[in-house]
Amino acid sequence: MKSLAIIVTHPIQYYIPVYQQLAKACKLKVFYTWGEQGAALKYDPDFKKHIQWDLPLLDGYPFEFLENTAKDPGSHHYKGIINPQLVENIKTFKPDAILIYGWAYQSHLAVMQYFKGKIPVWFRGDSNLLDETSRLRKILRKLFLTWVYQHIDLSFYVGNANKAYYQAFGLNETKLVFAPHAVDNERFSIDQGRSAEQIRTELGIMRHEILVLFAGKFESKKNPLLLLKAFSEITLDHTHLLFTGNGELEAQLKESAQLHHEKDKLQKVHFMDFRNQSLMPAVYQACDLFCLPSQGPGETWGLAINEAMAAGKAILVSDKVGCAQDLIIKKKNGDIFTSGDLTDLKNKLKFLCTNRESLFAMGQISKEIIQNWTFKHQVNVLIKTLND
């Protein structure tokens, strides 16, 4: 049985099932570079609250927390991850390959440089080229990232926009392997009808009415204010909008929603605080249409789309959402609007929300599409590559 070392900053809920499945198919060790504090309850500046995921993140696979000697430890900057023992600990483990999540940390880049040519160095990230940048910035980024990716042997891309990104910085087809971005489809698809109906009842939403959902951080990158403005400026009978989450735009969103309520007593806007992972399937299942109106920069994929699709929901996203070209088939399971274009969003939101039955049919297509985007597929690709 071959061995695989994984280098990642901290336990991330979307990756744990991959590690658990890998541990059954190879000799695995996950090296957490943030240190033990990376797994603890911590303040999330985007959600504006302390977050502790309610799913087990350290069960079912071998791992090691490395000492992080950074003065300001964390994944928010390059010098926040410094692990003097990382290279030696990897050498002691003697892996047949190393999979690194993210290069923008001192230790991670050092591992890429040290092991290149000694052990196959694999890479996993979800960046894309959807954000607009100046010509000078493009040139500088190309020079730097072309140098960075010279230190890897293979990159496992998550979708088409991510693949185009790697190709732009010098990786050809021989160095690119598709391993789909995934969530726990089963957990989000298990029937939560009773809990979903309770959510709708508590919000005062009748069975025949349509619920549009935004779930995530209330931040500029995700542009929830545009969705609220679009909803407020169109006439949608028996339609509600729910914002689930917290963040820096919360007060502004609630103030704007209150002004809307004063003008229109029929179209309702609701708010629900951040819900942990175990509660989110019911939230998705309570809605009819999920909308992610992101403007970026940095909306690399949008895994909430995977979750909503696994829950069987129609989708409306902006063209700045990394997964749009992979997961959304226009007029089949939802639609894509031009980021920041209020008129385009209004038109597509109004069209989608004219009929609840059509949204249900789109949701069933979403569920079919997402069946191919699984942890099992991702793990099978990794194990096949390791054994080849």
Describe the protein.
- The chain has 388 residues and is α/β, with parallel strands linked by helices.
- It folds into two domains: 3-182 and 373-387, Rossmann fold (3-Layer(aba) Sandwich), CATH 3.40.50; 185-371, Glycogen Phosphorylase B (Rossmann fold), CATH 3.40.50.
- 38% of the residues lie in helices and 17% in strands.
- It contains 15 helices and 15 strands.
- The strands form three sheets. Strands 5-2-1-6-7-8-9 form a seven-stranded parallel β-sheet, with helices on both faces.
- α8 runs parallel beside α9 and α8 (224-233) crosses α13 (342-352).
- It starts with a strand and ends with a helix.
- The model has no long low-confidence stretch (mean pLDDT 94).
